[in-house]
Design a protein that fits this description.
heterodimer, A: 7-stranded antiparallel sheet, 26% helix, 31% strand, B: mainly alpha, 3 helices, rod-shaped
């Protein structure tokens, strides 16, 4: 198993970096996602979500501030300019081409993007890359590319997202409860 | 010469005009009389609109109101649907994001668990 990993504080660093970032999103933080026709054609399940600022605002309007979960979600997306998710599930292993995926990876280049985490589990054939968009020293975007044998996912969040707030939503709305590190030493909660 | 000859006629005309145009008190019953005559005179009949025109006007007005209400209702319904769908997509996007962050952590965590085992085995 090969792991490119700067240290065990990676998630804490990610949270800190994104929490401290400003709400203004540079255009560089928004990826140009291809249609992924080849992936969609072979996928048994497709999730294609594009929430631009207008739709985010509309969604926020339908979150009930008197409901704690909705209020937390509203707070979480307050600094966001867009959320773009492409998720494809397949019924066979490795049935998706990598050409279109490489088109996205090419965009995640320095200096606009910095790779925060890359984990590659050869046993499970799982490859996850987490990038953060940095503009003048401020993080204003997040990109996740996750390749699994039967699933491929790209997440692009434009704007400042506080992952600590995202964690508070775990167990709500179907968001799974995670065992992410919660201490100074990166110990699991 | 000729002016002298016309002067008496001019004065006479002026005097008669003054006499004819001098203010006259209309009397106490004048206003009442005028009002009575006005009331007694038949009013000019308005040209009656044909019943068909009136019906069409009423129908057009009613149809416009109904159409406006329907459009407003339709807009409101679509807005609510769009909002609910946007909310659903937002929650789904956050779920997927959280899931993939967890995946990254699990891979890292499995390596962390494997490392001490290797050390203890050696």
């Amino acid at each position: 198993m090969k792991v490119f990993f700067p240290g065990w504080h990676w998630l804490a660093a990610l949270m800190a970096a994104l929490t401290a970032s400003v709400a203004l999103a540079a255009p560089a933080a928004m990826l140009n996602l291809p249609d992924f026709d080849a992936l969609a054609a072979k996928a048994t399940e497709t999730v294609n979500i594009s929430l631009d600022p207008a739709l985010l605002g509309l969604a926020a309007g339908f979150l009930d501030s008197s409901n704690p979960d909705d209020a937390a979600t509203k707070e979480l997306i307050a600094g966001l300019k867009g959320i773009y998710v492409r998720n494809y599930t397949f019924d066979q292993d490795f049935s998706y081409p990598s050409a279109q995926v490489d088109l996205v990876r090419k965009q995640l280049a320095a200096p606009a993007w910095q790779r925060l985490v890359e984990v590659n589990n050869t046993k499970d054939h799982t490859h996850v890359q987490i990038y953060v968009a940095v503009d003048r020293g401020v993080a204003n975007g997040l990109a996740i590319i996750a390749s699994e044998p039967r699933e491929f996912t790209i997440v692009n969040i434009v704007g400042a997202i506080d992952l600590a707030k995202l964690r508070r939503l775990e167990g709500k709305f179907g968001i799974p409860k995670l065992d992410l590190p919660n201490g100074k030493d990166g110990q699991a909660k | 010469m000729s002016d002298d000859r016309h002067e008496p006629e001019s004065n006479d005309l002026e005097r008669r005009l003054r006499a004819a145009l001098k203010p006259v008190n209309p009397g106490e019953g004048f206003t009442a009389g005028v009002m009575a005559r006005v009331a007694a005179e038949p009013r000019p009949a308005r040209r009656p609109r044909s019943p068909a025109v009136v019906s069409w006007l009423a129908f057009g007005l009613a149809a416009s109101v109904v159409l406006a209400v329907l459009l407003a209702h339709e807009w409101q319904v679509r807005r609510i649907e769009q909002g609910r769908e946007a909310r659903r997509q937002l929650i789904e996007a956050l779920r997927v994001t959280d899931e993939k962050l967890n995946l990254a952590y699990r891979v890292v965590n499995s390596r962390q668990d494997a490392a001490p085992a290797q050390h203890s085995g050696a």
